[in-house]
Amino acid sequence: MPVFKAPFNGYSVKFSPFYENQLAVATAQNFGILGNGRVHVLQLGPAITERASFDTADGVYDLCWSESHDSLIVAAVADGSLKIYDLSLPPASNPIRSLHEHARECHGVDFNTVRKDSFLSASWDDTVKLWTVDRPASVRTFKEHAYCVYSAAWNPRHADVFASASGDCTARIWDVREPGSTMILPAHEFEILSCDWNKYDDCIIATASVDKSIKVWDVRNYRVPVAVLNGHGYAVRKVKFSPHRGSLMASCSYDMTVCLWDYMVEDALIGRYDHHTEFAVGVDMSVFVDGLLASTGWDELVYVWQHGTDPRAP
Amino acid sequence: MAMRELVSGGAACAVPGSSSSSNPLGALANALIGSSSKTQERLREIPTATATTSDGNLYAGVEEPFASLPGSELEHTLRPNMQGSEFLQGFRSVDQGRFSDAWDEIQRPQVPHYQGRDGLTNFPLEQPLPQQNFDGPPQRVLSNFLHSFLHSSQGGIPFRPTSLPVLGLSEGDKQCIRDRSSIMARHLFADKSEEFIHGQVNALLSSLDIDNDIRARGPIPGRYPELEEYWNESQGMKPGPLGADGWISEFTQHRAAPDDPNMWVQSFERQHGANGWASEFEHEQSQLASIDQMRGSSMPNLAAMEQTRLLAHTLAQNNDPKFQNSKFLQFVSKMSRGEMTIEDNQFKPVALSAPGDWATEYDQQYGGGQSWADQFANEQLSHGPHGWANEFAAEREQHGVAEDEWANEFSKLNVNDWSEEFERQVADGTLGDASADNWANAYDEYLNEQAVLKQKSETSRGLYEFSDLNPYVGHPNPLKEGQELFRKGLLSEAVLALEAEVLKNPENSEGWRLLGIAHAENDDDQQAIAAMMRAQEVDPTNLEVLLALGVSHTNELEQAAALKYLYSWLRHHPKYGTITPPDQPENLYYADVARIFNDAAKLSPDDADVHIVLGVLYNLSREYDKAIEAFQTALKLKPRDYSLWNKLGATQANSVQSADAILAYQQALDLKPNYVRAWANMGISYANQGMYEDSIRYYVRALAMNPKADNAWQYLRISLSCASRNDMLEACDSRNLDILQKEFPL
């Protein structure tokens, strides 16, 4: 599969939930430490072509597609703002929204796949905020974590339930109808950088940590993890459950690899891709094509490939 | 559809009476938006869902109406809601059926209809400006700095920082760099102590000249942060164990260079002296105090931060070749070793750490050090004269899509321009065969000189880049013409005339010098330095040239080079030559040079030049108050020196006094209305104060006078986006000054 070279360091990559050949990439200059950012919208084909791009005043750490409008993208910007871009509008009218409430860097965004009208932002100001595209201000702020929140992920079944992963070494489960978190999961001894829900079992959640491991938990019985997946050599930056197979997960790490796991089998590590030459920080799986993966990293490259093939193969 | 309807459900809401205030969300909407119809009009609608029913739609329920968000009332009235605990029970219960029933029940109540689009009216939100101001010097310099650093490690692309008079990272930028680096470093060095991470980050920051006066985003709390601070404080009073580590890496790295190791010890003593650390500490303390006043907030624990000026080199311990080749890790490790001051294409080690028992540590860790030495040797190899050519080819392959970046990369090299010009002119036949040959020769010459420069490690920057199609070529007396144009303030024209002069008489030092000054005033330090260096080659003792080179290198943040030229200035000065030591030491230290200049100032307090140099020196050490004082003294002696007013303004801008800076720039412009650099600096100062509209006007004015000021174009672009003038970005990108001038008259 082809490769896309971005001018800045890659931070996140997401397949469109509407079109199998569309992909959005979040990038940041200078490894996200200082500088500008850019959102690229890419078209997959024989070659990867850029459909649109949007510049930001600070690095873009994450993005997500709207689940209700095929042309909307929400970007998490390092200046603490969330920008909403509409691909159907000319660049001059974008972003259509700039939501600036977080006091620190926004590090994660996730669109609700059930109710499809709202999204979450996770920020280094230790909070998670709930937003809808229609409102100029956040609907709620969830402030319980004691350190940076790196990601928040909606439960794929329950419109009001989400999980958050934080540097305070806990993952928390929240219900937006509740005043506080409903469950605190002291999942790792070290910072937790990412979490995701199983798409087939609404009680299974995976957490990825600086301790190099991924742990799978059942929220009904969270005393011991369902599985502990070791194999990455450095902090695991993102974990993502497969939309096609219940026990399949993809992860990427500061060890520059992308790994595929099946937490139900004994030898859980079922694939390792070594194609990035810098930290691999973004990974996603296509909802349309079983086994189609996308990854990006600080080597400024975006790879799209089928599981089992070499990402670098022309 | 307006927000009220979305919130309350509006007329289409399935819940009877929900549009009244009996609906808590409706009440909320009333409270929030009142009855102002104006507010509603201004709300912008998101495009409808109809566009989303594509064949690829996985979710059948796209058209399903938006439910009003449960839980939103919690944001305002945090009433304990017992009903919510159902969720918890649901999770804990084994009975999945009950769980889902509970969910359905909660889901059911309110089902307002999503009405679809009623016109794309105005966007309701005031677009918040980016919190950090990445306008102006910090972002650009840093970016170039980081990138040229990375590239210099792999292929020997000449270092080309931006041509800004001064660099001042704002407090916000510093905080931002520090916080982000700290947070990221913790991901990487999870199994290391917090001190270690501080050490890494501080090394990185101090090499970027970011002082330790800002409290970083702290470590993960819950691990007794108070104790940790106490520990840090106690550690701050004496050199920590990591100090030794830093020494080793520097020591071994230094060994790799063919120098006498003993010199290292001497240099350490020279730089640190007995009280060096203490005075630095005091300096930091006073800085901290002033920041405290500025922010009105407490900034504790300076001692703790100070002790973390310690270095380490764990990354070398990972023997994975992939890691060793990682640009980012090379970057971090180099910075952590304080190698960030690349001068004259050599790594100049900067002793940062506190004295420690480095000798024993060195013995213990010699193995690790060796790999650094190897790496260093490899890098030296890759700096060979052909490095850039490979780089060029490689980059060319990779950059198929990102053409603009590609162009940027190579405009740094100037190769692109040269070859393009060459091709175009040959194709156009605008030049005769002979001149085409000249171009080819010049190009070859360029390559040769480039190689020579590399071998000599003489300089990291490129050669002087001539304009094409110079109407003054063939002029009988281009020097006189150039001087005349320069006097009139027609800088870009003067540049052309002077270029013609030095093409005709390459040995004319005065021609090169004037050319350099014209470029400097035209806000192009790169060319200014190139020209000044040619002037110095021809006449190595010209005082004005030496001073100008010192200033330009200060602008480019190249301390060692700046010190070299400023010191030479003093040595060759008829009045002060006697107070300098007879032989120039191999390595100059800031403290020595500053001391000699202070002596010179005492010797003749009425010599404005000495005060100017002192001001420049204090800029190097970031003692801006002293620098401002020095420039003000010089201005009393030379009140009509416009470039001096500009220097004062730039220094004031650096010490976060942008408002004062604007007054100083105004003085400079009153004296010399065509002073492009002052116009651009004025823009930067406005941008730093968040007055983007004003900054745009000044940038446009500067560009109208010198459309080749690439940096000003970049600042303009940033200011345009910060001012939400995206409509003008295209004009900026296409460099359409007509449109911009019409839109932003000054």
Interface with most residues: A-B, 101 and 94 residues
Count of DSSP-assigned helices of chain A: 0
Largest sheet of chain A: 4 strands, antiparallel
CATH architecture classification name of chain A: 7 Propeller
Query: What is the CATH T-level topology of chain A?
Result: Methylamine Dehydrogenase, Chain H
Strand order, biggest sheet of chain B?
1-2
Question: Tally the helices of chain B: what do you get?
Answer: 37
Mean pLDDT of chain A: 92
Helical proportion of chain B, percent range:
55-70%
Q: Report the order of strands and helices of chain A.
A: EEEEEEEEEEEEEEEEEEEEEEEEEEEE
Task: Categorize the overall geometry of chain B.
Answer: globular
Q: Write the CATH homologous superfamily of chain A.
A: YVTN repeat-like/Quinoprotein amine dehydrogenase
- Beta strand count of chain A: 28
Provide structural commentary:
- The complex is a heterodimer of chains A (314) and B (746).
- Chain A has 314 residues and is mainly beta.
- Helices cover 0% and strands 50% of the residues of chain A.
- Chain A is built from no helices and 28 strands.
- In chain A, the strands form 7 sheets. Chain A has a 4-stranded antiparallel sheet with strand order 1-28-27-26, with no helix packed on it. Chain A has a 4-stranded antiparallel sheet with strand order 2-3-4-5, with no helix packed on it. Chain A has a 4-stranded antiparallel sheet with strand order 6-7-8-9, with no helix packed on it.
- Helices cover 61% and strands 1% of the residues of chain B.
- Chain B has a two-stranded antiparallel sheet with strand order 1-2.
- In chain B, a hairpin with a 2-residue loop joins strand 1 and strand 2 (346-347).
- The radius of gyration of chain B is 31 Å and the shape is globular.
- The interface between A and B is large, with 101 and 94 residues.
- Chain A: Keywords: Cytoplasm, Peroxisome, Protein transport, Repeat, Transport, WD repeat.
- Chain A: WD repeats lie at residues 99-141, 142-184, 185-227, 229-262.
